[in-house]
Hints:
By secondary structure, the chain is an alpha/beta fold. The protein has helices at 16-32, 50-63, 77-89, 100-106, 161-164, 179-189, 205-215, 245-248, 254-264, 276-280; strands at residues 3-6, 35-40, 69-72, 93-95, 108-109, 115-116, 138-140, 169-171, 194-198, 221-225, 228-229, 293-297, 302-305. The chain is built from 10 helices and 13 strands.
Amino acid sequence: MEVARFAPSTTGVAHPGTLLAGLLAWLDARSRGARLLLRLEDLDPERCRPELAAGLQADLAWLGLDFDAVEEQHRHAARHAEALDRLAAAGALYPCGCSRSRLREHGEKAPDGGLRYLNLCRGRALPPGGWRACDEPLRAALPPGRIVPVDEGGLDLAQEPAREMGDPVVRRRDGAVAYQLAVVVDDAASGVTRVTRGRDLAPSTATQVALQRLLGLPAPVYRHHLLLLEERGGKLAKLHGAVGVDALRPVYSPDALVGWLALACGIRDGPTPLSPRALLADFRWERVRRRDRVARWTGRSLELGD
Length: 306
């Protein structure tokens, strides 16, 4: 059986972009008869809180999305540590002493819009006590060469991640395992075969495949979908103050909001209220809009633009 997952971070309340990503992951999995996991990405000790995780689960259930299992990522510390052990044993793990100012000074723009890391600390050895005794961020030295992951929607994911992105941080200075490592380890441990997510994460795919290869892990099939954007052009995000579900619930019923999301992504021509399950009968990715969509919150309703 295929296994899919929806893996939102628990750093704030759900917003329309969160719900669209959850709905599309749910439709993809349920239309295929795949097992669907909800993975709560809660590794950031500064921003993740249990009440946000509980609220996110409640919002997804309110919308009508069900899952076959729920995982809390922070409970997988042992498997993350074992992956760091394997990277260290392979000679791929090294401490990075670069300050933010040094990264800005030497960094160039990366495909994801951030700074490309120039692998400045490659060759530095771990301390005598190994990575557990290190109080600096840890990076994984990626092998050279071009990686060409396949995106089911035809998005070009080809990249030479060691050069274009640079070696990724796999454990942060505060001791938290970083996203790039945790996601590949947890996908493999859960048997995930399908990853449906927003195209903002597409530039990370080649790096993740490189880490999978370093660790001898299988690669799932990827599909990246459109984003909901704010009017200034950035994706709707908690960081930008996007409207939360707590403000939407008094205005929209679950079916009305699902209807709006279906209109936003192009699988319906009008905002007819309907449940997620009602969308399953004729769901096809060919009907899903490829271009991103602007979403505006007027204080009374959600509006769409191009």
